[in-house]
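Researcher: We're teaching a course module on how sequence relates to structure. For the next exercise, students receive a sequence and then see the predicted structure as tokens, so they can try to spot secondary structure elements on their own. Here is the exercise chain.
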Amino acid sequence: MKPIKYVSADEAVSHIPSGSHIHLSSVASVPHCLISALCRRADAGDVRDLHFHHFHTEGPAPYSEPRYEGIFFDQGFFVGPNVRANVNAGFADYLPVHLGESQKLYRTRQILLGAALVQVSLPDEQGRVSLGTSVDCSVAAVESADLVIGVVNPNVPFAYGDLLNLDQFDYLVQDDTPLVTAAFAEPTPTEVLIGKNCAALVEDGDCIQMGIGALPNALAAQLTGHKNLGLHTEMFADGLLRLIKKGVINGSNKAIDKGKIVASFLLGSNDVYSFIDHNPDVLMRDIKYVNDPYVIRQNPHMKAINSATEVDFTGQISADSIGTRIFSGTGGQLEFVRGASMSEGGKSITAFASRTNKGKSKIVPLLNPGAGVVTPRADAHWVVTEYGAVDLYGKSLQERARLMISIAHPDDREALDRAAFERFGPHWNGVK
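Model: And here is the predicted structure for the students to work with:
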């Protein structure tokens, strides 16, 4: 392997011209040293009109801030807490796309990438580096961008799966900033009940997908008595790591990637990052592969478990917004919903608390005006709250309304029943 020549972050980003579209590796592995260098260029009046694309990012997000209006403009594929206020104020924007198709925007040149800024591991003996905790659409970005800058960071784990070669980079920068971590989210009593209702739909030998947070942790805690589960998921964190270490998740029943844990990006504790480092049982893959419904469906008994901000009587599932206010993004929800639905013995499951933290029902007659339908009613199957689980598949609109009201908060059911009568007319005979 030839010696690696490093440059400073400032020198590397000096080659990015104004007007460029820039990809950032995301989640826990944002190349903050390069972003800071771009801010220094911006402060010096040396660059304008840079557009940023990424999954949700952790840490400071100056590329979305009002002070850089006209210089930076964020157009992320998913909206995290660090950019949410600026997106909804109009200083940044959201680009709706299924996460599995985000890479396609680059590969088909729908988005002409001027630069890809990614963080990578130390190279192996063959000169290969890993994208570690954030493979996502970064492989496509490196393949497609005019300029590729890699931050080599010893804190990035070397994860097997889709690797890159050093000769794919135009410039390399050294940095040893620790990756962003997320503490284990303890579930509330309500979330524990939801976890129990979800776990009842999961059988030994199933392959599962879920995200991170208190609700997935609550479900994971209810699966400790299961056996031989598989994992094919967009991301995982500490809740699922506990199941892996207990041997509950071993992938022995998977039809593809047998015995392997497959994911595309991670956010968790350092235990999660250490676990994937040089671990041949973990494959961190391009989002094109992980989120492809036709890949997902190949594992039998796939159980895809996702969340919602609200669901209407007919099964329309909103998960990216609260009315017109963008909250997150389409993500890979529909890709996993469809993949699980096509899987032999599979189920798609939407789980959420029946009420918001302010006591408002998440089961509604009509979605809030402007709310995004992430999963259409024709794709809605199992819906779970702390009050039970219902299957909407094969049910008519009125049947769905009755089922949805039955798992609403008891104090909301009378008002929902009246709303159903107003909607469906005299043939509506109420919830039994």
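Model: If you want an answer key for the exercise: The domain at 189-427 is CATH 3.40.1080.20 (Glutaconate Coenzyme A-transferase). The chain has a mean pLDDT of 96.
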